[in-house]
Write a structure and sequence with these properties.
Elements (H helix, E strand, L loop, with lengths): L2 H7 L24 E6 L14 H9 L17 E3 L4 H22 L7 H31 L3 E6 L6 H7 L6 E6 L19 H5 L5 E9 L4 H9 L4 E5 H9 L4 H9 L5 E7 L21 H13 L3 E8 L7 H20 L2
Parallel strand pairs: 1-2, 1-3, 3-8, 4-5, 4-7, 5-6, 7-8
Helix pairs in contact: 2-11, 3-4, 4-5, 9-10, 10-11
Length: about 350
């Protein structure tokens, strides 16, 4: 069947189909404008793991979603397809995660000399695997872009989008990143892991094409990260959660705050959405939950305002969603992904 024939045969008001596709949509990868690319990886997470199976959780929960989107007319017709999670990389994550836990526990115990050699070998092995993963993501995302797809990375931990960002830089001479997150993620090789989830934007800032990084919802960070932000001299704009709340309490409306956020972004925008940027009631089992954060509707309003401003979403990721067995997080994440895909697809 052609894409149009699939659209004609599909009932968007019917029961959610358990057909193995995101939200039960009828499209395959060839039909889709937007391809969701799962990366089942959570080796370097520093607190709770499990996000390696997030895409499976999201896929399972997605059949409960209704397809109508008030912000994008006939949104479901854009064509969204979620690839199956790569089982080789998932297995590699499962094998390396216990080693990473042992290494982190060794660090927390004061790095006793008796295990130093073994732990250094572990660190080298994990850093090499992370580098291999980055290269794999870069290659796969490039192939999708060449096929005319807009790509959304589905983590996995927040280290996973780096290879995709590097690939986008070869297509867009300049672009900005809108990061919704509880954390700045500006640590250099956190815990010794070059590509730690806590180091994603320290590493991403090495990409010259990233003109600006706009961080929203930040509420858990260290002095070193503040220094990195200051050193960038305006390239990084941080909208701390406490400052957003203070402004709201003093009478500033959220629409105006969104305008101030978006004004820091160039015409082409990449959205990096760590689900812990939301209040923990929406993601209680994410790897590193932090009190405070954006309300779900606040986050969706901000995303819509990005498109309404005339800016174009060139790619996105959703990371740190709790894995299989956490249906609520899967439900919330599926809704975020649908909105991201719809808004991005609208601009194609």
């Amino acid at each position: 069947m052609t894409k149009q024939e699939k659209i004609n045969a599909f009932d968007p008001n019917g029961v959610g189909l358990n057909n193995g596709h995101f939200i039960g949509l009828p499209f395959n990868e060839a039909d889709a404008k937007v391809v969701l690319f799962p990366v089942p990886w959570d080796v370097t997470v520093s607190y709770n793991d499990g996000t390696a199976s997030a895409s499976e959780n999201i896929l399972e929960a997605s059949t409960q979603l209704d397809l109508y989107d008030a912000d994008v007319k006939d949104a479901w017709k854009i064509g969204i397809y979620m690839r199956p999670a790569d089982q080789i990389w998932k297995r590699r994550s499962e094998l390396l995660r216990p080693k990473a836990i042992a290494y982190i526990e060794w660090l927390e115990a004061g790095s006793p000399d008796g295990q130093k050699g073994m732990m250094q070998e572990t660190l080298t092995q994990i850093n090499q695997a992370c580098m291999d993963l980055k290269a794999w993501i870069s290659d796969k995302s490039r192939a999708l872009i060449e096929a005319g797809k807009l790509v959304g990375i589905v983590g996995g931990d927040h280290s996973t989008p780096l290879g995709y960002l590097e690939t986008l830089a070869s297509y867009y001479p300049t672009f900005g990143v809108l990061q919704i997150d509880a954390h700045m993620d500006l640590r250099e090789a956190y815990e010794g892991f070059t590509y730690s989830h806590a180091s994603i934007f320290y590493n991403a800032l090495k990409i010259p094409a990233i003109q600006s990084l706009v961080q929203v919802g930040i509420r858990d960070y260290c002095e070193t990260e503040l220094a990195v932000a200051a050193k960038e001299e305006g390239r990084i704009s941080v909208f701390y959660d406490a400052d957003i709340r203070s402004a709201l309490y003093q009478g500033k409306n959220f629409d105006r705050i969104c305008d101030e956020i978006i004004a820091k972004l160039p015409d082409h925008v990449y959205i990096s959405f760590d689900i812990d940027g939301l209040a923990p009631s929406f993601c209680p089992n994410t790897g590193t939950p932090v009190p405070g954060g954006l309300d779900y509707q606040e986050a969706m309003y901000l995303l819509k305002k990005v498109i309404d401003s005339g800016r174009k979403i060139i790619g996105f990721d959703l990371c740190e969603v709790a894995g299989v067995g956490n249906e609520w997080e899967g439900n919330v994440a599926a809704r975020i992904l649908y909105k991201l895909a719809n808004l991005a697809g609208k601009g194609m």
